Amino acid sequence: MAGDAELLFQQGIQAYGRGDVAAAEGAFRTLVEQSHDGADVLYNLGTTALAQGKIGEAVYALEQARRAGGGSDVEANLTIARGRQLDQLVGAPGDEPFVERVAAATSPALAGGLFAGLWALGFLLLAVQVVMRRWRGWLLGGAASALMLSAPAAAVLGAHLYSREAVQEGVVLARTLPVHEVPEPRSKVSFELHPGVKLRMLDRSGDFVRVRLPNGLEGWTDPAGVSPLR
Description:
Number of helices: 8
CATH architecture of the largest domain: Alpha Horseshoe
Largest sheet: 5 strands, antiparallel
Number of domains: 3
Strand content: 5-15%
CATH topology of the largest domain: Serine Threonine Protein Phosphatase 5, Tetratricopeptide repeat
Radius of gyration: 23 Å
Strand order of the largest sheet: 6-5-4-1-7
CATH superfamily of the largest domain: Tetratricopeptide repeat domain
Shape: flat
Structural class: alpha+beta
């Protein structure tokens, strides 16, 4: 962060330390609005929102921090925030496509690192075998193995890229969000959602968006009540 941003970040930390949680939240929110939205800023924004009982805003900021590479502290506070949600979803998890299950079960940083490392090793061995004729067979075999092993890592990395670009998720911020059976304002309300629920945003119809919950429930709602995750 630049000098002014670092100063504001430290002011937020100090405000939180002396118990002025609202001032701390304001500092971290200003940083995000100024595009200083790294994992550490988002984590602190989510933590200060959680301390004030702003569950929807806390989950949203912490989910963003997770996507930005946040670690165990982010996961711990997300668990606390979800435990305080009004809506505790029940039922079996909905079936997700294979690509999305792969992305959920793996680390994009690890997949990217493995792919880059194996790819570089493969081409390095190919270059070395040109000048070391004595070990050419071994070097060619090693290069082929490294390049072949990079393929699964590339596939996992592709799954993460696909999930990020093609799958739109969001967090409910509205105090009460009715979910309808069909995309009509006067249609029957199937259920209501409250701040902090993470959902998937599917296709749109007019002023409505079809959403799916982690337990597979679906319906149509007003997209203004959901803040998309970037």
